[in-house]
Amino acid sequence: MYPFLRLAHQLARARGLPPLGLRDVHVSHHRCWPWDLDGFMEMNNGRTLTLYDLGRFGAGVRMGLSGVLREKRWGLAVAGTSVRYRKRVTAFQKIEMRTRVVGWDARFVYIVQDMWVAGTCCSQALLRTAVVAGGRAVPTTEVLTAMGEDAAPPALPDWVAAWIEAEATRPWPPERPAAA
Predict the structure, then answer these.
(1) CA 110 from centre of chain
(2) In principle, which of 21, 53, 72, 96 could form an S-S bond with 116, CB 3.0–4.6 Å?
(3) Within 13 Å, how many C-alpha atoms sit on residue 86's CB side?
(4) pTM passes above 0.90
(5) How many other C-beta atoms are found inside a 10 Å radius of the C-beta of residue 81?
(6) Is 106 exposed, middle or buried (0-12, 13-18, 19+ CB in 10 A)?
(7) CB atoms within 10 A of CB 4
(8) Surface-to-core class of residue 40, CB atoms within 10 Å of its CB (0-12 exposed, 13-18 middle, 19+ buried)
(9) Percent of the chain whose predicted confidence (pLDDT) is above 70
C-alpha cells in the first residue's frame, strides 16, 4: 500500500520550509522502517522508488509546482527511471534524500535524487518526468510559465544526455516474447 501518512507528513514539512528556486536542492529526511524491508532485510527496491516519490512531492511543494497542478488540474507522470544502487539501507537507518531538477526539454523535466545514510550515498535515481493533462504531456514552457519561471533550459550533464540518447534507441513497443 502507498504510504499516504508518510506522504502527508512530508508535504506538511515541505509547506513549513522556505520556497525553492527551480534548480535548488530539496533535502528531506526519511527512515527505513521494518515494513520497507525485503527478504534480505534491506530496503526493498520498490520502496526505494516510493520514497523517491515522497522527495519529489516535497520538492514540488517548495518550488510552487503543487499549487499550479491543483489550479490547472494537471497531473504528474514518470516516463523513465534509471537507478543505481550501491549500499544497503537497513531497518531504522535515517536517510537524507536530495532532490534536484537538472534540466528539461520540450516535454520532460529531468530530476536526480540520491539517498544518503551517515554521509554515504546508497542510491541515486535519474527520472524523466512530465506534467500531464488529458493523457498527454504539457509542454515544459507552459508549465514553467504557469510557475512564474522564464528560465532557459540548462545544459544537461553529459551522463544525463547520454541516458536520454540511449533511451531513444530502445524499441517501443517491445516485442512480446513467446512464453515457454
Answers:
(1) 9
(2) 96
(3) 11
(4) yes
(5) 14
(6) exposed
(7) 8
(8) exposed
(9) 100
